[in-house]
Amino acid sequence: MSTATVEQEPASKVDLAESGDGAGAVESFDVTLKVRRYDPERAVDAWWDEWTLTMYGTDRVLDALHKVKWDIDGSLTFRRSCAHGICGSDAMRINGRNRLACKTLLKDLDTSKPITVEAIKGLPVEKDLIVDMEPFFQSYREIMPFLVNNSPAPTAERLQSPEDRERFDDTTKCILCAACTSSCPVFWTDGQYFGPAAIVNAHRFIFDSRDDAGDMRLEVLNDKEGVWRCRTTFNCSDACPRGIEVTKAIQEVKTAILTRSL
Amino acid sequence: MTQTKSTPGGRGTLYKGREGMWSWVGHRITGVGIFFFLLVHVLDTSLVRVSPEAYNAVIGAYKHPIMIFGEIGLVGAIVFHAFNGLRIILVDFWKQGTRYHKHMLYAVLILWFVTMAAFSARHLMIFFGGE
Ligand code: HEM
Ligand code: SF4
Ligand code: FES
What global pTM score does this model have? Predict the structure, then answer.
């Protein structure tokens, strides 16, 4: 109504200027980052490097890795893209457990001891924290991670009831970070095992009412390297950064294979 | 903000699994342990067909005091494997099983403890009772 208010500065800016210590309000602390390094061009064996860094309460393990790479040792090698928990690039073993570096706040870890960071297990390490993801994606491709529908395409969407959509909602959240598959003791010793991530993504289509290839996927996973390798250690469920009930999804696929063949 | 240390040839750390992983480790160790005990036991029992004297000598070894603890250990392994085996069956076939796997493990451990307390008490009593 009144034109006078339009001229005012936004309140937030005025506030910041007056207090003048916006950044200083975040507490800082020292952390020791201990990274397991590997570079076949430098040494045959892996080695551990330690750095002590001054970090802030808002920083994540990824920020600490950036600090090392940008300010101290540019040869430190790791993958990351989105930095916000959605691309699935930076799964690594932090203090012995698979986590996304971009979703793990330093202040949530025990900073009185060095924070250990290692590559995920079970896939060949190429350099430092980078592993060869090809075996992982090979298994993913084999379960046909796409909609198969043999009826003629409708002019609009293929409709689905909310209940039918809910059936596989949990497994749609996967970002293919491999935290689950590389936390699995079966996968560490048997690289041929399809692994939790492939089963999660098969589950996403097997229980989709619009999909027609469920039986084919069940057949693929009924293999000796399929779901029956699972020993229900729950490492995958504990590791998943998306909170997917991975072991539950695997159990549902096992049950589907059994009831189908009856 | 400096490099403080570099350790050559460092080994990786142990994966920090939780209840699910350690119960599986326990299940496998007890399963393999029971298997080897049964293997030996089938062999020593079959000795009776070869030579009753040799059988008596070998079976007599079970009377050695050390075997008391061996037997308690064996029963402990079997009891854990059996109770946890039932838990795994529930995880696999009961719809809510994956959500309660930790609770069920605590139940297994409590049942194991109660069973073992009762068994050990009776076993030691029979042994030290002189028979
Ligand atoms: C007392 C009754 C028993 C029950 C209820 C039982 C139950 C089970 C179950 C459900 C599994 C599957 C584990 C999984 O899926 O991860 C299993 C595994 C196993 N059992 Fe038993 N079992 C029993 C007796 C035995 C005996 C007598 C032996 C030894 C001869 C044995 C040796 C094993 C071994 C070696 C495994 C494989 C462990 C693994 O794959 O991690 N079990 N048992
Ligand atoms: S199921 Fe979870 S842990 Fe496994 S790949 Fe998908 S997002 Fe990562
Ligand atoms: S960088 Fe994308 S998930 Fe962490």
Answer: 0.89
**Cα nearest neighbour of B6 on chain A:** A49
Token pair recorded at residue A77: 């090698």
Alpha helices in chain B (DSSP H): 19-50, 52-60, 65-93, 101-128
Burial of A3 (0-12, 13-18, 19+ CB in 10 A): exposed
Is the CB–ligand 3 distance for residue A88 below 6 Å?
A: yes
B13·A96 Cβ contact <8 A = yes
When mean pLDDT is compared across A27-36, A44-53, B43-52, the lowest value belongs to B43-52
Q: Which residue of A has its CA nearest to B24?
A: A233
Q: Where are the domains of chain B?
A: 19-127
Q: For chain B, give the number of residues.
A: 131
**DSSP letter for each residue of B103-130:** HHHHHHHHHHHHHHHHHHHHHHHHHHTT
Taking only the tens of pLDDT, chain B with its 131 residues reads 577 788 887 788 999 999 999 999 999 999 999 999 999 999 999 988 989 999 998 888 888 888 888 999 999 999 999 999 999 999 999 999 999 999 999 999 999 999 999 999 998 888 777 55
* Crossing angle between the packed helical segments A246-261 and A196-206, to the nearest 10 degrees: 60
Ligand number, closest to the Cα atom of A177: 2
Q: Which domains does chain A have, with CATH numbers?
A: 26-131 (3.10.20.30), 134-147+162-261 (1.10.1060.10)
Look at the domain B19-127 and name its fold. 3 helical TM bundles of succinate and fumarate reductases (1.20.1300)
